Amino acid sequence: MSSYRHRYHAGNAGDVLKHALLIEVLNDLVEPKLGRLVYIDTHAGEGRYTLLGTGEWTEGIGRVDAAEPSAELLPLREALARCGAPLRLAGKGGEYPGSPQLALTALRPTDRAVFIERDPETSALLRRLVGSDRRAEVKTGDGLSLAKAVLEGTPSENTVVVHVDPAYTDKTEWTDIVGFLYDLREARPFAVIMLWYPVKSLTRPNALHATLRKSGVAASVVELQVTPLDIERNALNGSGVVLIGATASCVSRCAAIATALGPILATHEGRFTVRTLGWT
Ligand SMILES: C[S@@+](CC[C@H](N)C(=O)[O-])C[C@H]1O[C@@H](n2cnc3c(N)ncnc32)[C@H](O)[C@@H]1O
Prior knowledge:
The protein is of the alpha/beta class and 280 residues long. It has helices spanning 13-30, 61-66, 74-82, 99-106, 120-130, 143-152, 172-187, 203-214, 248-265; strands spanning 37-41, 48-50, 95-97, 112-117, 136-140, 159-164, 192-199, 219-225, 238-244, 273-279. The chain has a single domain (6-279), classed as 3-Layer(aba) Sandwich (Rossmann fold), CATH 3.40.50.150. Helix content is 39%, strand content 20%. Strand 6 (159-164), helix 7 and strand 7 (192-199) form a beta-alpha-beta unit. The longest helix has 18 residues, at 13-30.
């Protein structure tokens, strides 16, 4: 089993893009007062993190916290505040919420959230955090297979949102995910799916996009590179989100959020790239 622990990465530039877009996707669906929404987080993590003194968050949420507020980032700021303001981000001992806690701030009292986490210790921490919320259920096991089982028992009239956020510690995760997305779309054609991926170079992201496109899954992509790739730094140089089933207006707001984050998160002043792609 992998020893990946998200606590060492919590609040980094990848988390900030992912969480800002997650809030946007959920707000887009709860605003029109659609029926019950079922949110499934396949790789849920601990749900809340204590920020370490020298953590990656200083290059992520630490910068957003210090930046001038902007309209594009207001929903993220509001969601963070609802998770327990003040977050005391400055300095050691601050806290940052994970996707489960953020998603719960966006969901309505009648919605449902299923959080799946494979690591038993991590899943126990999450259960302790959200266990008293009637809307939330934590399952321990493989995210992709448990998500399929949850969907089989979910009434077809429910709006389904699936957030897929693998750790990418094994390169097979890049390819396994395509079959999962294809099957999910076949089973629930109206599901809204968001898949986060890291960018070190463009080799794996481009292969992911091409395979998805070839498999016939219509999608949009919003990607933010915060470090110029020509530097060939072997680190997280950016990240992207594949959006399936999201409305066109939601996708364009997601692109605007990435563009607002670019200058804030750029590791080399002013040098960032937002890529937006789409296929039907
Ligand atoms: C990137 S972190 C998740 C972060 C979280 N989604 C957030 O935004 O706060 C990935 C998580 O997936 C868990 N994990 C790894 N393989 C898994 C699997 N096959 N099924 C479910 N969870 C898995 C890891 O233990 C880790 O907590």
